[in-house]
Prior knowledge:
The structure holds 2 protein chains of 2 kinds.
Chain A lengths: L8 E5 L4 E6 L9 E6 L6 E6 L2 E4 L4 E4 L5 E6 L8 E7 L15 E6 L1
Parallel strand pairs in A: 1-9
Antiparallel strand pairs in A: 2-7, 3-4, 3-8, 5-6, 6-7, 8-9
Chain B lengths: L3 E4 L2 E4 L5 E7 L5 E7 L5 E9 L2 E4 L6 E3 L9 E3 L8 E8 L11 E2 L3 E5 L1
Amino acid sequence: LxxxxxxxxxxxxxxxxxxxxxxxxxxxTNDYITWYQQFPSQGPRFIxxxxxxxxTNEVASxxxxxxxxxxxxxxxxxxxxxxxxxxxxxxxxxxxTDKLIFGTxxxxxxxx
Amino acid sequence: NAGVTQxxxxxxxxxxxxxxxxxxxxMNHEYMSWYRQDxxxxxxxxxxxxxxxxxxQGEVPNGYNVSRSTTExxxxxxxxxxxxxxxxxxxxxxxxxxxxxxxxxxxxxxxxLTVL
Lengths: 112, 116
């Protein structure tokens, strides 16, 4: 099982770019990296997923170096509504990873 | 499209009582799982299932039972509730079929359980 390590918390201001890094040193060959966002009193929701290099969608970018032992979620120009907890998850039910274990997550606080 | 539906949303139990948290999904997902989340903490995996008739333990299975008789439903049973089981419980499902699917987890809205 690939264990993940993230910073416990981060602060930012509106309009800034935020980068949250996740370490996953024992990631397996078939493992995908997925990031989730969770607001209070809600279940986590999918943000972005990648396997290697860079992936971008309408809300975030995901950077994965060649060794895949870490990944960085980049949120461009954050707003107050981006205040949430962000989790990286390594593994996927698609490829036989059945124990999908979350780390402690990163609590992002965005200030005006 | 309902996604993942959990019932009840709120429940108060006394120590020693039993109850079942219901989870149903309408996406034909083979994979389903239960997590608990304590205040200010992350998600911890209780049990999971990769298909009907197949279940296995997660990180914190003690005090909980599950079964998977259909693809759609994955109930979580507390046989004798304890105050330590006060938590918010999330059910999640995902595809195992590949293709265009990412295998992302779809979560329910959560069930808040208080054990007195």
